[in-house]
Amino acid sequence: MTTEQVVLGIAIGVAAGILSGLFGVGGGIVTTPAIQELLGGSPYIAVGTPLPVAIPTAVVGGYTYARAREVSWRAVRFAAIPGVAGAAAGAWLTSLIDPHWLLLVTAGLIAWQAVRIARSNTYRIRPRGSTPGWRYSVLGGFTGLVSGLLGVGGGIVFVPLVTTMLGMPLKRGLGTSLVLIAIIAIPGTIVHAALGHIDWGIAFVLMLGVIPGARIGASIALGTRERTLRLMVGSFLLVVAVVYGVAEITRLARG
Fold this sequence. Notes:
Elements: H1 3-23, H2 28-37, H3 43-48, H4 50-67, H5 73-93, H6 100-118, H7 133-150, H8 155-164, H9 170-194, H10 200-222, H11 226-254
Helix pairs in contact: 1-2, 1-10, 4-9, 4-10, 5-7, 5-9, 6-8, 6-11, 7-8, 7-9, 8-9
């Protein structure tokens, strides 16, 4: 990498880290396109490299939320093992299937749940411990599958669903998402590394930025009013859904 690319990579990492801590995502929504378009990585490198970067990002952000007691460890316990299995399966499937249709369906799901998050009166918060554990397990498996298949942390799926469908408060959902991402990114990283889909030089440069960025983003989220945070998270996820959806429709139309 050139000096300019190193500086750019660190800046991209800081931006991805802030978004990760603020919105409970792994940062792949920023790093994946940046690796391909700005840092010279191939499409497979762009899919695989964000996963090892997501691990320190999620650890730092998750630790910040945990200190504020905004992590559901019960949800993590039920979701972690299915999430790990789903991530490994998703990473393996990248070499066998075209993920465009899955990403298009996921984009629609994210858009629907994003609107529900922003409109806080459309769902209710459940008391701690009242959600059956198997629901967290199912969500963990789906989150892992999306993470491994698309090279993202999985928070774009976990956060909207755990809040709107399982009734978890938003800040707790963000913190729980980051802890889960730190776990399920590990098997995806191993599989993508075995497949040769990770550029460790690019990953290291991005890590230099995402670690401080994640702390900043999580601190901002924890200090933001719940209603304001819901509008921010809902708007962010809706933008992500629209961008993903339009991009995939365009690719399918060209194909």
